[in-house]
Amino acid sequence: MEGNAFEDGCGGHDKDNHKDKADRATNELVMDQRTRMILLKMISRGIVSEVHGAISTGKEANVYGAVMDPLDGSRPIQRAIKIYKTAILVFKDREKYVTGEHRFKRGANKKNNREMVKQWAEKEFRNLKRLHSAGIACPEPLELKSHVLVMEFLGDKRGYAYPRLRDATLPDEGTENPWRAPYIQLLGIMRCLFRVCNLVHADLSEYNILYNKSKLYIIDVSQSVEHEHPRALEFLRMDIKNVGDFFRRQGVDTLQDRAIYDFITA
Ligand code: ADP
Ligand code: MN
């Protein structure tokens, strides 16, 4: 690889050593040239030091664990990297989340796909920022370059990601259904998301919420829409239904969907 991949690397770093480390970090991960280059630049800038295996491989994106070694020698910091896939057509399905976006209607081709994917990553980055500023627990967004998003890792010190709400085991205190408190917590989050962030998640379910120590973390907000979006309220109803269905299955005595809708929007 040419030296210019590291043109913005920090001074004083041994470039060869750096290159080795970067190559090792990305070698085993099957990635296209562009993605590799973006990661190598991030490594040279010290945003991450090592990229590990996939935490999740999805239809539209893969999420990888990563570690950043601070220059001052303090403890390594875990990070998560979400890399959107560019070579697929599943994004057609997502068109309904974008308003007034006619730039990509010319048909599917490599360049259009890349632009579209870049937009999703950008959207996720912006939405995460909003959630984070509003104090909603979520991964703090750290860095975005094209279709590669670096964020705070939600997991323990050993590198295990927190479980999705779907897979979480809740401590049983014996008296009340343990799922009731997270249910109430989630209603508050949905309300805050709507009223403070101006957003509807639009894919909210037990799959896009992580759980640790009684706390819910909202993830996967690339498809979230502003509440001015023509279909925002439709998406909100869908979110409410998914959430209600899940907690009803856990035996929670849930409120009626209509009441929740009013609570969130009123
Ligand atoms: P997808 O579009 O593939 O559904 P998600 O954003 O939902 O992508 O992430 C997929 C999975 O990756 C999540 O279910 C979660 O297990 C894991 N994950 C995502 N973001 C993080 C993070 N910041 N920290 C730890 N794990 C994460
Ligand atoms: Mn998801």
Q: What number of domains?
A: 2
**Overall average pLDDT:** 87
User: What is the strand tally?
Assistant: 9
Query: SSE order, as H and E?
Result: HHEEEHEEHEEEEHH
Q: N-to-C terminal Cα separation, in Å?
A: 57 Å
Estimate the strand proportion. 15-25%
CATH class of the largest domain, please? Answer: Alpha Beta
CATH architect. name of the largest domain: 2-Layer Sandwich
Strand order of the largest sheet: 1-2-3-5-4
Protein topology:
Elements: H1 15-27, H2 33-44, E1 50-57, E2 61-68, E3 77-84, H3 110-133, E4 141-145, E5 148-152, H4 180-195, E6 199-200, E7 209-212, E8 215-218, E9 225-226, H5 232-249, H6 257-265
Antiparallel strand pairs: 1-2, 2-3, 3-5, 4-5, 6-9, 7-8
Helix pairs in contact: 1-2, 4-6
The structure holds adenosine-5'-diphosphate and manganese (II) ion (MN).
What does the model show?
With 266 residues, the chain is α+β, with helices and mostly antiparallel strands. The protein has 6 helices and 9 strands. The strands form 3 sheets. The chain has a 5-stranded antiparallel beta sheet, with helices on both faces. The protein has a two-stranded antiparallel ribbon with strand order 6-9. A two-stranded antiparallel sheet has the order 7-8. Strand 1 and strand 2 form a beta hairpin. Helix 1 crosses helix 2 and helix 4 crosses helix 6. The longest helix has 24 residues. The termini are far apart. The N terminus is likely disordered. The structure holds adenosine-5'-diphosphate (ADP) and manganese (II) ion (MN). The site of adenosine-5'-diphosphate has 19 residues, from strand 1, strand 2, strand 3 and strand 5.
